[in-house]
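Hey, I'm writing a tutorial for new members on how sequence and structure tokens pair up, and I'd like a real worked example in the thread rather than a made-up one. If someone can provide the structure for the chain below, I'll link this post from the tutorial.
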Amino acid sequence: MPYIIRNAQGIIVGTSLEPTEDTFEYLPGGHHEVVAFAEQEKERGVMDIGATDSNMARVTEDLIELLISKKIIEFSELPVHAQKKLQFRKSLRASPLPGFGPIGDKEEP
């Protein structure tokens, strides 16, 4: 952000990290119009990349588990700190305690 795209009424309808033929106007990220646009998009359910990070972490964990189960990699080949983190997260995901189970393990739209 925040090269912006405006509609015919002058309302921001899109943003871009890079200038394009449609996004020649630049506003700072904290500009009130940019903030309002971001809030509107959030309310509409448009996810930013940061909102998908926890889901991608789970996908990565599942991928590592798959590679280990198929004996493509050995768990012991992973760096020790990665082994500890994976073991800890696996125990949290398997926990029956409230707040420590598979919260967030849901399909994205």
